[in-house]
Amino acid sequence: MSDTIILPGDKLPIDEDIFTVKTTIGPGIYKKPKTQELIPSAAGTLHYERAKSSSQQLIYIESNSKRYIPHTNDYVIGIITGAIGESYKVSLQSNSTPVLLSFWAFPNASKKNRPNLKNGQAVYARVSQDIPEIETELECIDPTSGKEGGFGVLDESGYIFDVHLNFARELLFNPKTIFLETLATRCQFEIAIGINGKIWIKCGNGVKKEANDGSNNNQDQGEDQEMIDVSEENLKDLKSTLAAATFLTRCQFVTQDKLKQELNNAFQGI
Amino acid sequence: MSLLSSIGLRTSIIDNADGSAELSIYNNNSNEASSSSSSSDDNSIIKLITSINGPIEPKQRQELPNRASLEINIYPSIGLSTTKEKLLENKLRSILQNNIIINYKYPRQLIQISIQFLISSGSGSSSSSSSNYGSMMMNLLDLNALINCCYFALIDANIAMNYSFASIVIIIDHQGNLLIPIDGNDLHQQQQQEEDYESIHLCCYSIIAKKVDKLLLLESQGDFNESQLFNVLEKSIYKVEKFHNEIHRQFINDKIKNDYIWKQEREDE
């Protein structure tokens, strides 16, 4: 395995005989249809893996970007923007081509038992089909168990914010990522990370609206105190959720020795 | 960040764009610039910002069934877009549309490129714009900066490209000497002596394996003969390869360091 920086037009340092050596190409590598030649199509860090005794090789280019292109088995966060026939229209990123989420792409779904999603709701889903010439399709089913597996509608009391795609990959695929562990030392949170650069996060009860708004006119002192306590708790959860989002956004632009400092800045006053 | 003494480059400067780049071309001789009224505050001769969004959802009239469509908008530093900007757009499109961008990777999608000139060459000098030679040189210098800035913005947006590309401008004076602006020569001085130039040439090349591969665009204006043209091409190849191996490499090294700064334990500098 070697890491080198590569630009479009450079020559790939691989075994050229791609018909004898089984070659798997990943993002950033393009196979020319006419000449069957492999070329780098993106600028970034080249990753090349080839076992000594094996006749296989893997090659891809890792780079940062902001525009998400759907690929099969990616976990994404989408926003429902409409319904077309028997599918919901889902937006993965502003201005991008919308993708489809079928009514049957939920566990135990049938014609009579269909999901009831409204415009603006957020879903955590898996890309099930990514043919470039037709519309991408999502699923909210775990492919192995056939059950929810964590997919489905995301709570409305969470907060969704955007990050760069390479940072989203780090948060989702690195189980020991320092950023979430540092955040966990400060507050408890639920998080959903989409490879399309969107993150949904919720601390405690999140940014829920006031549940007892004016509904209780009882003059009893105990209940008034209880309402005040609930309100303060909600406010603390709201501040924690926004602070966690601010911290994760700032993590993209600082080195790791400044994480504590950024954490204290984000949670200042909470 | 200044890569060389005569070029300034910044990327990812626009948050709402998928890729963006700001390119500045400076006077080398700061003493002479400070004494001239046509000099701008930051000592730039040409300065522009390019932003790229894509691949995004196209309008129906822009959709192509199996290729990405390209939308180019160019805005001048003074006034509104005119036929000059349309000409620049057509030349840029001829380079990007079917050569550089791998269109078949993004079928039925749109790639949107917007270019805003902050300082155009000659915009600070009203006398030079009235000259016929001056307007020819200004156009080609703007086109040269625009092509190079698009390269950096495309890399920043992570659009799939077949190869790298770079462009360069070469001027032939009355004595037959070849002069290259922004490469050791004082462009500001040349602007004041533009009547001395016989012709100006812009060459844009594709670069494969660190070597110049194909000539993507050749734009010449003025009086010249065949041997002079071949001299221009021969000299420009060396300069373009040097530009690619120095500035493009430096740019991608800095970009990767910035993009993955969160992987580093502490600052290197």
Automatic annotation (TrEMBL), chain A:
The keyword Cytoplasm applies. SUPFAM superfamilies: Eukaryotic type KH-domain (KH-domain type I), Nucleic acid-binding proteins. Keywords: Cytoplasm, Exosome, RNA-binding. Residues 23-67 form the Exosome complex exonuclease Rrp40 N-terminal domain. It holds the Pfam family KH_6. It is found in: Nucleus. InterPro entries: Exosome_RNA_bind1/RRP40/RRP4, KH_dom_type_1, KH_dom_type_1_sf, NA-bd_OB-fold, Rrp40_N_euk. Residues 158-205 form the K Homology domain. The keyword rRNA-binding does not apply. GO terms for molecular function: manganese ion binding; RNA binding. GO terms for biological process: CUT catabolic process; exonucleolytic trimming to generate mature 3'-end of 5.8S rRNA from tricistronic rRNA transcript (SSU-rRNA, 5.8S rRNA, LSU-rRNA); nuclear polyadenylation-dependent rRNA catabolic process; nuclear-transcribed mRNA catabolic process; poly(A)-dependent snoRNA 3'-end processing; TRAMP-dependent tRNA surveillance pathway; U4 snRNA 3'-end processing. One of its GO terms (cellular component) is nucleolus. Its main location: nucleus. This is Exosome non-catalytic core subunit. It comes from Candida albicans (strain SC5314 / ATCC MYA-2876).
From TrEMBL, chain B:
Its main location: nucleus. Gene3D superfamilies: GHMP Kinase, N-terminal domain. Belongs to the RNase PH family. Residues 7-159 form the Exoribonuclease phosphorolytic domain. GO terms for cellular component: cytoplasmic exosome (RNase complex); nuclear exosome (RNase complex); nucleolus. One of its GO terms (molecular function) is RNA binding. InterPro entries: ExoRNase_PH_dom1, PNPase/RNase_PH_dom_sf, Ribosomal_Su5_D2-typ_SF, RNase_PH. The keyword Iron does not apply. It is found in: Nucleus. The keyword Ubl conjugation does not apply. Pfam families: RNase_PH (PF01138). Keywords: Exosome, Nucleus, rRNA processing. GO terms for biological process: exonucleolytic trimming to generate mature 3'-end of 5.8S rRNA from tricistronic rRNA transcript (SSU-rRNA, 5.8S rRNA, LSU-rRNA); nuclear mRNA surveillance; poly(A)-dependent snoRNA 3'-end processing; rRNA catabolic process; TRAMP-dependent tRNA surveillance pathway; U4 snRNA 3'-end processing. This is Exosome complex component RRP46.
